[in-house]
From TrEMBL:
<dbReference type="InterPro" id="IPR029058">
    <property type="entry name" value="AB_hydrolase_fold"/>
</dbReference>
<protein>
    <submittedName>
        <fullName>Alpha/beta hydrolase</fullName>
    </submittedName>
</protein>
<dbReference type="GO" id="GO:0016787">
    <property type="term" value="F:hydrolase activity"/>
</dbReference>
<feature type="domain" description="Serine aminopeptidase S33">
    <location>
        <begin position="53"/>
        <end position="137"/>
    </location>
</feature>
<dbReference type="Pfam" id="PF12146">
    <property type="entry name" value="Hydrolase_4"/>
</dbReference>
<dbReference type="InterPro" id="IPR022742">
    <property type="entry name" value="Hydrolase_4"/>
</dbReference>
<keyword id="KW-0378">Hydrolase</keyword>
Length: 227
């Protein structure tokens, strides 16, 4: 089975499947942007809730991936079980965490010597945060983490890595004030970026999101002179 690209979506540099715990996982890997200095980083990104239409082709996920590639990283996006051509059925966050673990294991085997970065949007932000302490990424990006919804954010160990949380102030799905209050309870606190006049899906704000991500991760990029 080969990975598919929906109409109107740019094809990935490398489309493939990974053997996952529920069957094949549909995935896409993209190389750093052509004019970017290639760095030893591979960023794995998680998409929003599959039962509400979330896929690896979501525009927020693809924009975050673009921002990482413009910083010199490779990116891997993938579909959780039961989404797109990935086998299985939705598993309320448990099996999806296993899917992420599988993709990270693939990334580390495929790109030895590369730092692992994790990122996610909405439900994907929950899954990547839930697994971060275990997976030990070099950086975690959480976009509109769904605090206060179905998912339990309590008792999840701190990721112990540079961590960036981005939240739209006019989010109609995730309570922006709940996210802000949650961030205030974390020690150490992640870098919190609040984007005014911004909805859940960053309508007309995707380029602002791209710029915010690039600025926030810049201090954590490896120095090519030392590599």
């Amino acid at each position: 089975m080969t990975a598919s690209t929906p109409p109107g979506v740019a094809p990935a540099d490398h489309a493939f499947t990974i053997d996952g715990p529920a069957g094949p996982i549909e995935a896409a890997c993209d190389d750093p942007e052509g004019d970017a200095l290639q760095l030893p980083i591979v960023a794995v990104l998680c998409h929003p809730l599959p039962t509400e239409g979330g896929t690896m082709h979501n525009k927020v996920v693809t924009m975050a991936a673009r921002a990482f590639r413009e910083c010199g990283a490779k990116t891997i996006r993938f579909n959780f079980r039961g989404t797109g051509q990935s086998a299985g059925t939705f598993d309320e966050g448990q099996g999806e965490a296993d899917d992420l673990r599988t993709v990270v294991a693939y990334a580390r085997e495929k790109f030895p010597g590369h730092a692992l970065w994790l990122g996610g949007f909405s439900f994907g932000a929950y899954i990547s945060y839930k697994c971060a302490h275990e997976l030990k990424p070099g950086l975690l990006l959480s976009i509109a983490p769904p605090v206060g919804r179905t998912w339990n954010f309590d008792d999840i160990p701190h990721p112990n890595c540079p961590w960036i949380v981005i939240q739209g102030e006019d989010d109609e799905i995730v309570d922006a004030q709940a996210v802000k209050a949650w961030v205030a309870t974390l020690q150490p606190q992640p870098e919190f970026i609040s984007m005014p006049d911004t909805s859940h899906f960053f309508h007309r704000k995707l380029m602002d999101l791209r710029g915010a991500i690039k600025s926030a991760v810049r201090p954590w990029l490896p120095d090519p002179a030392n590599g």
